[in-house]
Amino acid sequence: MNRDFSPPNLDTMPNNALKEILNYLNIKERSVLRKVNRTLRKAVDNNHTTVNVALNFWDDSISLNLDGIGIEYSVEDEDKCEIQVGRTSKILDSDYVETAMNDLGVHFKNPNTRIKNLKLNWEFSEELFDILVRILRTFFDELTQNGGSGFFVENLHIEDNDGDNIGQVLTMIDVNTITSLRINCDGAHLRDEEQFLDLLQWQRVRDFRLIGDVEPPNHILNALRNVSFFHIDQDNDNMEVTFERIFIFILTVLNQSDNFEHGQITTRNLDIPAPFINAHLILGNVSVSFKQNRITMEKYE
């Protein structure tokens, strides 16, 4: 007996089946799907989406990477911008910042968007940082007005040395989601670090990496009590770490920490007395190894 069966249709599928399908779609495919009709837009927006986002700000251009999909927005002419995706480009009658903001809005306005890794670079320029804040603040304000508490970001990677700027970005991240913070100072001194060390978001960080210098390093070292893993990589000779400072840090901070597991400080200006080079010590509940330019610390069970 012949029966007529309707062809499969996404917007009439059971929710569980549709959710499984959405899990296999990348962020670009989800964006296309949500434009089909209201049913699919609701399904996409109600489903948790995990993405990786990288934003690089240059003079007159913004580079956006969403889950490996690279998009570049640049100034073409007055009130015109060029969008380039791979080898394909097009010219739009719009400002390049507004165009990038509109594209990001599809994802950032979705309260269920989870950002696994967020990488931000504004070339140490206050003018470019202002553009970044303008973009992020637009979506942050909308999230908070709708009852949200900020962007859902797990790992944050910032290339800058201004603690005040870093703090401004951190305040827009939900305190319940951030676990990792990486700062790359590109050879410069990290300054005004107290501007982010006093934030609740910092208290939730469990994995911290600093590439650059801190002078003096006491602020950072004393603030590592809540961190499980840290790596401070001093990339020039400006930051002096003394043997006495490390002993005090281990005894007063790491020994008192409930979270600490592993840490490392690398610097070419490490002041360790010759008898302790290549030595291994147990200081309280921390195992310490001293090398010429590196100190490794691990929780001692």
From TrEMBL:
Q: Which InterPro entries does the record match to this protein?
A: DUF38/FTH_CAE_spp (IPR002900), F-box-like_dom_sf (IPR036047), F-box_dom (IPR001810), FB224 (IPR040161)
Which positions fall inside the F-box domain? 7-53
- One family name in Pfam for this protein: F-box
Q: Give one GO biological process term.
A: innate immune response
Show the CDD domains listed in the entry: F-box_CeFBXA-like
Protein name, entry field: F-box domain-containing protein
- State the gene name recorded for this protein: Cnig_chr_X.g26135
